[in-house]
Amino acid sequence: MISHQIDNKTLELASRLLGSAGVNEEYIHISATISAVSVALVSALVIYWFLAYPVASFINHKINKSVTVIDDYLFPPKTVHAICMAVVTILATSSVPSLFEIYPDLKSIASKVLSILNIIAISYCIILVAKGFCNYLNFAESGRSASVVLRNLVTTIVAGIATLLIVSIVLNRDLAYVVSGLGAMAAILMLVFKDSILGMTAGVRLSVNKLLRINDWVSVPKYNAEGRVEDLTLTSVKIRNWDQSLTSIPPHALISDGFTNHESMLERGIRQIRRTFNVDVNSVRMLGISEIQKFKGEEWLFGIDLDTPQVNLTMFRKWLRNQMMSHPRYSSMPRVFVKEHPHTSTGIPIEIHFFVRCVDWSEFEELQADFLDRIIASIPMFHLRLFQSPAGKDLVQTSVNVIKEKENAEA
User: Fold this and answer.
1) Considering only CA atoms, which of 10, 84, 79, 8 is closest in space to residue 45?
2) pLDDT tens, residue by residue, 148-158
3) Is 318 in contact with 304 (CB distance < 8 Å)?
4) Cis peptide bond upstream of 251, omega within 30
5) Residue 376 has what pLDDT?
6) Is the pLDDT score of 368 beyond 70?
7) Full DSSP string of 193-233
8) Which candidate, 52, 55, 108, 317, has a CA 20 to 30 Å from the CA of 391?
9) Which pLDDT tens digit goes with each residue over 93-121?
10) Pairing of strands 237-241, 246-249
């Protein structure tokens, strides 16, 4: 109301000045309107300059000197400038349209344009503040996906509300009318924004359960993806694979198809060695007392009677467990075991499972290979054989043996 009275007085003053200057009465109204609008725009620019430079510099200086951290994230210089712009648009929206009082059509257009600019400016400020808050959460929570999902969620909601408000202004309809019109288009909207809706719900689940964050090492077998998470959005999770290729996966696919996050293992400073050896069934037998005596004095023989025959596979399993627990990098957490699976057509699977204190990838691979090589080389010590499908050399040797046996039989 006050701004409207000021605008009327501004028009009256401009009309009197133009009349006293000898301007034709036919053009006084339009000239007064143009002059008043020009003064309003110049005033807006002056106000913006005052807010965006002296005032903003003072605010930024106070923020930089404050001991708290959150204000540095909520109100960086970019956000402060955006707030200054929003203040100017609010002032312009409340004053400029009334300058076109004599021209209703221009007043309606100016009011709509300025209202739209006002909505965009305020929405932009809200998004920047939300982004700053999410960056603060990212700093405080070490990059958990909650902050990323919250940022995307707030951006989507604010952008959606702003779009509805702009449409209602352009159509000159009430907001409730526009929202009711969306109900008739619900099926189409669900189809168009299906990935965004599924991604939003999946992102919330990922963040609430703290399953994923940027820079996590993840593997998604269905998509043949394994590497570090580069970005999280409502519609995609970008994974930089170890071969430097980039895989984009919908967030809902991670929930429905499953994925493995290896980061918690690295945070605990341990890596898993898990391997299965298929022992040839035909090599499993009882070891005689004389064959057992060569192991006399070994600490892993605790509880084994060396004066009675023992199964070589049993002794091999006990030796395996001792080798794992005596490894220089062995970690007692969370567990260690040697498991014998039911025998199959490819032998008896013997699975080892333990953890070592090593997170460097290349060092771990070398350490693991050395340990597995030692196991493979030690298997004949127990008169066992690993199962191996016949290769070309095996078939040739078998043929030679058959021929020799046939010749000996004929002789």
Assistant:
1) 84
2) 667 777 888 88
3) yes
4) no
5) 93
6) yes
7) THHHHHHHHHHHHHHHTT--BTT-EEEEGGGTEEEEEEEE-
8) 317
9) 877 776 666 777 777 888 888 889 999 99
10) antiparallel
Short-list 200, 222, 203, CA closest to 212 = 203
297 dihedral zone (left: phi>0; alpha: psi -120 to 50; beta): left
Dig out the tokens for 42 from the structure: 């110049």
Q: Exposure of 174 by Cβ count < 10 A (0-12 exposed, 13-18 middle, 19+ buried)? A: exposed
The pLDDT > 90 percentage for the chain reads: 15
Identity of residue 391: A
Whether residue 36 contacts residue 102, with contact meaning beta carbons closer than 8 Å, is answered with no
**Is 330 in contact with 356 (CB distance < 8 Å)?**
yes
| Region at 303 (left for phi over 0; alpha for psi -120 to 50; beta for the rest) | left
State pTM to two decimals: 0.57
Tokens of 373: 């090589």
- pLDDT of res. 151: 77
Go through the chain and tell me how many residues it has.
411
The runs of H, that is alpha helices, within 141-174 are 145-171
Q: Which residues have a Cβ under 8 Å from the Cβ of 359 and sit 6 or more positions away?
A: 266, 269, 270, 271
Q: Of 357, 195, 179, whose CA–CA distance to 273 is shortest?
A: 357
CA dist 94 and 112 (Å) reads: 12
pLDDT at 272 over 80: yes
Residues 6+ apart with CB under 8 A from 315: 287, 292, 295, 304, 382
Say if residue 370's pLDDT is above 90: yes
